Amino acid sequence: MFEIREGCTCVNGAVFQTFERDAREDGVSLEVEAGTTGFCGGGRKEGGRAYLRIQNEGADFFARVLENDDKRPEGVVLAVCGDNEIVALIKALDFAAQVLRDQVEEIND
Questions:
Q1: What is the largest CA-CA distance in the chain?
Q2: SS3 101
Q3: pLDDT over threshold 60, residue 22
Q4: From residue 19, how far is each of 27, 42, 83 by CA, in Å?
Q5: Predicted model pTM
Q6: 77, 88 in Cβ contact below 8 A?
Q7: 17 within 8 A of 10, measured Cβ to Cβ
Q8: Which among 45, 47, 28, 29 has a CA at the least distance from the CA of 37?
């Protein structure tokens, strides 16, 4: 079983809990951290917040922020090369999705 570490982050003034783990596959490692405030009933200013970080800890990994004409971020590209890297990325994304689902369900119970 893998170790899950607790943390926290702040997104636009809202501080909330995050969960982090290493997604490993045969010598390849990506660190993943995710969290959310859950639903807060609103749009950008009053609504919920979510956070996702995937960090290379030993993988053939590429990331790029997509910007609009005003140089404001509007997306992100992630790419990996290698079978083990693909598996590690799948594990990282699965973990992040599960954290976000669990935190949203916990708040709405």
A1: 45
A2: helix
A3: yes
A4: 22, 24, 26
A5: 0.90
A6: no
A7: no
A8: 47
